[in-house]
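Batch job 17 of 40 flagged for manual review because the log was empty.
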Amino acid sequence: MIKKILIILSLLFISIVWFVHFQWGVTILAPTYITAISAITFIMYAWDKHKAKQSVNKKVTRTSERTLHLLALCGGWPGALIAQQLLRHKSQKKRFITVLWVCILLNVVLYFFALEFFGYLEIAKVSL
């Protein structure tokens, strides 16, 4: 149940970013960037999960947790959250999960702050 909710939350945020673009004319760069960085982050999680399975038998180079957090912080948190739930990767480490949620909160707050700063929330109030 929670797994589905977290996946829906991630997809909902990406949908909201695209809706804001189409409805209020926010530059195409924002939704394109967030979608692309989320896809890249998902791929990095999948790659690290693959390497984690390989590391049982031999020494392999894995993606650092710092890199995964940096991708989430740079806007790829929807991809990180979806990968964490679908791939069950990095879903047991409490510290990792805590840092990921801090990245998520920062991103959401900064996104809506940017909308307010550039006046798009005023446009939203007028159009509603």
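Reviewer: the log was empty due to a logging misconfiguration, but the result itself is present. The longest helix spans residues 29-54. Unflagging and moving on to job 18.
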